[in-house]
Amino acid sequence: MYELPLFPLNIVLFPGMPLPLQVFEERYVEMVELCVREKRPFGVVLIRDGVAERGPMAEPCAVGTTAQITQVEKLDESGRMIIITLGRERFRIHALRKDKPYLVGEVEALNLDVGQETLLASETKLLFPLVEEYLEIMSRNGDVDMEASDLPHDPQRLMYLAAAVIQLPLQIKQGLLEIDDARELLRVLHTYYRQELPILRMMPPTDIGIFSLN
Question: What is the pTM of this model?
């Protein structure tokens, strides 16, 4: 268990995935400056209730991903900045503190149970061509900034990338993030890709951009 500053957003961040953010609210500028100064991550959590900007602190979902800051660009004297972060490890919130301008969680790290690694690696190979085709269709229409040739072969990295790029509602993506068993995550991803690919194949290219926003 450890304490982690939290950034509730309308985003689901997966381990290994980059996340650029523009930070302008005073409370989150303060939080980011602390994290940069102390070389520590903050936690990205999907908003369960509330809003991301201004207003009262939003209520977060219980499972999120730590974000390590890799680059900071200050925009003006007010403190506004653009930061580049990288998702690191999943965590579960056990308690929330609200004595600072931003939320602080008492959290525990969550490991993905991979079971037999050789078996998982073999089964993950079946997901690879589905993600590859999905990315090829989306990249042809400018809806993802990634080539199919960039796909990783490491099972965990591939699964989390597959979860990140597929266009699904945020609550479904949150459900993917909360899965603790690698083979269960793989099974669910297979199901979604086999559902979504036939739809993409039949859609006119001009409609795919609209589809990807839903």
Answer: 0.90
